[in-house]
Task: structure prediction
Amino acid sequence: MKDAFSIKGLDGARKLSGTIPVNGSKNAALPALALPFLFSDTVILENVPVLEDIHRVEELLASLGVSCKKQKRRYELMAHAARQTVLSPDIAKRLRASILFTGPILARFGSVSFPHPGGCVIGERPIDLFLEGFKKMGARVDEKNGMYHLRAPKTGLRGAEIFFRTQSVTAAETFLMAAVLAHGKTILQNVPVEPEIGALISFLNRCGASISGAETHRLEIIGGKPLRARGAAYTIIPDRIETGSFLILAALAGKKITISHCEPEHAGAVIEHLRASGADIAVGKNMITVTAPKGKRSSFYKSIPLKTHEYPGFATDLQAPMTVFLTQSEGEALVFETIFEGRLGYVHELIRMGAKIQDMGPHRVYIQGRAPLRGRKLESPDLRAGLAFIIAALVAKGDSVVHNAYSIDRGYEHIEKRLQKIGASIKRISS
Ligand code: EPU
Result:
């Protein structure tokens, strides 16, 4: 039996109201869980979200011998007894983010083995930047029986100059962590500036690392030896993708919704896109309120073009929910997904719901709005498209079932309970 979500649509009515708090960021927590390898003492993490992806990483940590004391959202991690350097293929293949562990393990223990990491069905997801970077730091890379085997020189990884041909978030985080233990200076160029990277750097620097260039595209790291946290805790920043997803849902189906415990600055692109379409958004210190537009004529939003971009541009992880928004806006819109080549496959399900969308190749779709949606049985292909289906189902006329709840649980904690609190009719069922 697998879980699914059963949803009653609002037929376009803007009825949801109340406050929805944002949890800790999945994509900040995942690299944070790889930190214990860089420390000689205990690393404390706070505000870790309760997610399936995080559970998979906990299993990975246990298989690697990292001790983990957990109290709900607080983790105490210690790699003192860890010696295992093989990432379990069963876990690593389920989770692209497992690649984040390669750098810290290789830098600490001198070797690491791992399969080609898995993840969601959003594109090819190569690891060439990782393999090239490790070679530059002196590692030998062998591939045998579907596993990569990396070995550092006897004296350990050495600092290197690495220019990323493509801006990659997890590659930047992996090499940043590896460079903290490597001997000498590492220069990373064309580094993305996603807030999750900045948060990681600022915790490492607090614990004695020497990393300069935070929030720029060039990082300089002087490495050498394990760090000591000395009781410092890393509080995971609010999830900007959750924030953006709730903003889009609020604009489409909300009467008045406040998104609390968030960092509005990290949601700048989505706020400005929604405002340009006509949404009424008020930004406070750690909260954002969306109020339904008044009057009949102005009650429909205006279409705008959408192009995904590295931060601070419009996040690819919000492209699917925003596409749903554009199906409900008046006018025509081109959606251009620039980061991943497989991240528009889900639109066929929206078309079955009544959306007017033309497929224009792997990177583009053309939307004619506004087209009312009808409830359907849907299969979530990945967490972000899955959340977009929940939004589409809430906007639609009639009932929907979104299958493969696991894919959504990977990135959104108890989504049904949180949406019920703002009045959504959604429940978890076994299918
Ligand atoms: N790329 C390469 N070679 C590599 C690595 C990446 O060509 O060796 C390319 C990718 O194919 C892609 C581009 O670089 O075209 C950017 O991908 P990136 O490596 O930045 O993605 P990622 O680090 O694997 C993180 C997030 C993703 C998010 C992307 C883009 C984590 C754990 N994951 O992935 O989040 O979509 O950055 O912002 O931080 C999600 O949460 O749903 C998710 C997929």
User: Anything to note?
Assistant: DSSP finds 14 helices and 23 strands in the chain. The CA atoms of residues 48 and 73 lie 5 Å apart.
